[in-house]
Amino acid sequence: MKLIGPFKQILTLANLPLRGKLSDEQLEIIPDGGILVENGKILKTGVFSILHSEYPDIETEKIEGEQVALPAFTDSHTHICFGGNRANDFAMRNAGKSYLEIAESGGGIWSSVQHTRDASEEMLLNTLMQRIEFLVSLGITTIEIKSGYGLDKDNELKMLRIIKKAQQKTDATLVPTCLSAHLKPRDYNGSNEEYLNYIFTEILPEVKKESLAERVDIFIEKSAFQPEESRDFLLKTKGLGFEITVHADQFTPGSSRIAVEVGAKSADHLEATVEEDIAYLAQSDTVATALPGASLGLGEKFTPARKLLDAGAILAIASDWNPGSAPMGNLIVQASILATYEKLTTAEVLAGITFRSAYALGLEDRGRLLEGKKADFITFATHNFQNILYYQGSLKPEKVFIGGNEVKN
Ligand code: NIG
Ligand code: FE
């Protein structure tokens, strides 16, 4: 057991509801606080001096200077295992080229598939580890990572095995997701339905057998998979025991409904979600995940986060870090920018990148500083928690703790 502190402020996020809008008055702030940790979990939070007098003999890890502590962040949607880079796509888009023109000149998701297939396992693992370390330095200790740049059995399994290897090299929690249904690969001879069936019969049984992922994702969009074929695939996949998440309503509406109908854990993107689907999502347990990094990377509109929260949805915010639409990978920058455009309170943003995004991954054991929760928390060298979002990402975490132990870079 050990006592860590004192912190100028501790934001526990302990009593915030799982869904709907939040005001900053609802934030529980402990002044001059301490965190009591045992076996990697939170035992207690409270005023440091009181905790210290209750447990006079325990080890104390002293915090110098003014620091604010809060739960570590969860990035519930990334594609950070990839080869190559799509800077040319980015430049072409900004020069006014269309999606089709970019794809025809060798860009788009397919180019990342080729680079990922060509990359050595060592290269993929090394670059993945660099990205994980960057995310941990930003206070993100739980990271979802998708496959989806392999798009055939060997290469999808290669990606998922690399993510599994990465887990052995980091204390952060990695949550792998099989996104073989990202796009029908250009070298697949058959219809979309046949390719989905190939995933179901050839890839998913092996994913299960090797315990490579417990979640399956699909990109439902005009340019990828259509709503009806996706529904069938997802229901069958659920039958195999996988949790479901969906890339929904990114450019055209209609697919968040499918996510809700199949009981998906989350529907992510939602930039194009229409009013009635906002209401439908809000009445469900499917988390609505905004991906402001994709809006910023593409120059497209933001997810209607304000409307989703007002309607009572569970709103998470994730980075979507990928080589194409969201190259930045900085969740704090993105979430604080989303807040200014969508008018989100600090409590709503922090909930969206902590316990709400963890809930989207089925991880209810983290994201709040409460007894029994995983002792993943971070500090910022400031006297006031409001400065975290105010500096829009330029204030970086001072310390990152995973399971009660400080991560040293
Ligand atoms: O979430 N929308 C589809 N998939 C990714 C983009 C992946 C890529 O462009 O490589 C996304 O934005
Ligand atoms: Fe994505």
UniProtKB/TrEMBL annotation:
<keyword id="KW-0378">Hydrolase</keyword>
<dbReference type="InterPro" id="IPR006680">
    <property type="entry name" value="Amidohydro-rel"/>
</dbReference>
<dbReference type="Pfam" id="PF01979">
    <property type="entry name" value="Amidohydro_1"/>
</dbReference>
<comment type="pathway">
    <text>Amino-acid degradation.</text>
</comment>
<dbReference type="InterPro" id="IPR032466">
    <property type="entry name" value="Metal_Hydrolase"/>
</dbReference>
<keyword id="KW-0408">Iron</keyword>
<dbReference type="GO" id="GO:0050480">
    <property type="term" value="F:imidazolonepropionase activity"/>
</dbReference>
<dbReference type="InterPro" id="IPR011059">
    <property type="entry name" value="Metal-dep_hydrolase_composite"/>
</dbReference>
<keyword id="KW-0369">Histidine metabolism</keyword>
<keyword id="KW-0479">Metal-binding</keyword>
<feature type="domain" description="Amidohydrolase-related">
    <location>
        <begin position="69"/>
        <end position="407"/>
    </location>
</feature>
<protein>
    <recommendedName>
        <fullName>Imidazolonepropionase</fullName>
        <ecNumber>3.5.2.7</ecNumber>
    </recommendedName>
</protein>
<dbReference type="InterPro" id="IPR005920">
    <property type="entry name" value="HutI"/>
</dbReference>
<keyword id="KW-0862">Zinc</keyword>
